[in-house]
Structure formats: C-alpha cells, structure tokens
C-alpha cells in the first residue's frame, strides 16, 4: 500500500484555477497508476482523471475533459491536478487514489489506496 496526502484545495471564483497536489509515501509509488475522484454532498463519488505510472497516458471524466490536467513527478512522489475554468458544479471534496491493477477503470472500487481528501469550493 501507498499513503497519499492531498493539498491545494480552497475557495475560488468561477472561471478561476487551482492546482491540487497528492504527495505519496512508499518506495513503490512509481509503480502505481494514480487518479483523482471527487464527491459533492449528497452525490456519489465521481471519477475525475487518472494517469499511468510512467505519466505518459491519461484519461478524464467527461465533465472535466478539456479543463483539468493530471500530471505526475515520480522523483517527487507527487501527482498534480491542474483545474482551470472552474465552475460551481466542480465544488466537492477531491480525493487522490492509487492502484496497481486497474488501469483504465473509472470505478472507485478498483483503487485500493486513498487520501483523506481536500475541499474545493467554487463560488458563482
């Protein structure tokens, strides 16, 4: 297992930007595919984006495609989520998650390691 800690959340106006970070501990982090999910109050956890262990391939949820970019720096054991053109409907707790076996999945059940989450609030 790998331990994950998110940071970078906060309050931003619609149209603004935020960059989330996910710092990992564990020597094998570079072997994990890593993703971001989000959960708004009263809603199910939603897939946002994922990146493979090399950082070469990414895939995104439909609601964020073209606005969000996921990247990783294995030398720093960190994954990033750059969020641009934010909308009020992007308001949620954002979670970082990692998996060694479920590349291509958008299901939270396929990701075995999770961070505690960071709140993102977008005001209109």
What does this structure look like?
By secondary structure, the chain is mainly β. Helix content is 0%, strand content 49%. It has no helices and 11 strands. The strands form 2 sheets. Strands 2, 4, 5, 6, 9, 10 and 11 form a 7-stranded mixed beta sheet that branches. A 4-stranded antiparallel beta sheet has the order 1-3-8-7, with no helix packed on it. A hairpin with a 4-residue loop joins strand 7 (68-73) and strand 8. The radius of gyration is 13 Å and the shape is globular.
Which features would summarize this protein structure in a list?
7-stranded mixed β-sheet; mainly beta; single chain; 124 residues; globular; 4-stranded antiparallel β-sheet; 11 strands
Summarize the structure.
By secondary structure, the chain is mainly beta.
List the helices and strands and how they pair.
Layout (H helix, E strand, L loop, with lengths): L2 E5 L2 E4 L4 E8 L7 E7 L6 E6 L6 E3 L7 E6 L4 E6 L8 E8 L13 E2 L3 E6 L1
Parallel strand pairs: 2-11
Antiparallel strand pairs: 1-3, 3-8, 4-5, 4-9, 5-6, 7-8, 9-10, 9-11
Shape: globular
* Structural classification: mainly beta
C-alpha Rg, in Å? 13 Å
Low-confidence stretches: none
Largest sheet: 7 strands, mixed
The CA-CA distance between the termini, in Å, is 39 Å
H/E element sequence: EEEEEEEEEEE
Strand % is over 45%
The counted number of beta strands is 11
Helical stretch count? 0
Output mean pLDDT.
Answer: 93
Assign a percent range to the helix content.
Answer: under 10%
């Amino acid at each position: 297992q790998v331990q994950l800690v998110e940071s970078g959340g906060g309050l931003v106006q619609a149209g603004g930007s935020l960059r989330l970070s996910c710092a990992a501990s564990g020597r094998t982090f570079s072997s994990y595919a890593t993703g971001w999910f989000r959960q708004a109050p009263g809603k199910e956890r939603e897939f946002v984006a994922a990146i493979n262990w090399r950082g070469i391939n990414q895939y995104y949820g439909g609601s964020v495609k073209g606005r969000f970019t996921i990247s990783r720096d294995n030398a720093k054991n960190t994954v990033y989520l750059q969020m641009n053109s934010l909308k009020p409907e992007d308001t949620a707790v954002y979670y970082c998650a990692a998996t060694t076996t479920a590349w291509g999945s958008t299901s939270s059940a396929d990701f075995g390691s999770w961070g505690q989450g960071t709140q993102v609030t977008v005001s209109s």
